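CORE FACILITY INTAKE
Project code: CF-77B
Contact: R.S. (postdoc)
Sample description: multi-component assembly, two entities in total
Requested service: structural model of the whole complex
Turnaround: standard
Below are the sequence entries exactly as provided by the requester. Do not edit them.
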Amino acid sequence: MTNCTLCKDDIKPEEGQLIWRGDDCRIILVNDLDLPGFCRVIWNRHVPEMTDLTGGEREHLMTLVFAVEKVMRHVMHPDKINVASLGNMVPHIHWHVIPRFKDDAFFPGTAWSNKTQETPVPVLAMRQQKSAELVDAIKAEIAFLA
Amino acid sequence: MTNCTLCKDDIKPEEGQLIWRGDDCRIILVNDLDLPGFCRVIWNRHVPEMTDLTGGEREHLMTLVFAVEKVMRHVMHPDKINVASLGNMVPHIHWHVIPRFKDDAFFPGTAWSNKTQETPVPVLAMRQQKSAELVDAIKAEIAFLA
């Protein structure tokens, strides 16, 4: 759809970084200063809901979402993983996969809740560094799946 | 775990209503005055993350989540479905499946964002009624899956 930001298959450097692109899906590392490591798994075609996909497509997408979760836990050791498909603003299937830490800006709220605290700057910098490792680790995991 | 609210496998009438219980999961209709039809699919055992489950267990759980989504769309005709597994407060796998409407209290934010508006009372009452239908329709769908 011409007015859908996720149908435009480009990503500005200030928004994030493409980790992997397949025929059906792509995975990006979101440039989120408060939540380093935040990833998004996006269905390439404009489809609003998971139940608009076939069972096989759904399974393929969820396999990628949980592959990202697995690698994220391994690389970043978060206190919790958050996984969500919302799309109220952009009704084009995209899964948020977010490493959450007890000292992150929104904990224990959601990534869309009000800020509760400031994460110490050196901690954020360390997580930022880890999120760069995440990119290569996700690529390797997806190559292993394929 | 003794201090986990989701390990206590009971539900107070003011919190919601059990729709279905299986060996591994249960489905409840959440009593949410702002978001009638809000359902939760809960893994019965205390497991924090999706990637702590086996592939088969994960598939079983997601089949139920998407069965709830399918029935919710059919019965309630929402503008969008929101699906999320967060667990920052209660790290015991539970999926929120939420019918969202352009006039609901939080739209276009998440169900955990600040309120943006008041839904007209008769509209809420009508959705409340629909959510009662949802209970039977989900039971029928799960019976069909089994």
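Facility notes:
- The mean pLDDT of chain A is 96.
- Chain A touches chain B through 30 residues (CB under 8 Å).
Invoice: internal transfer
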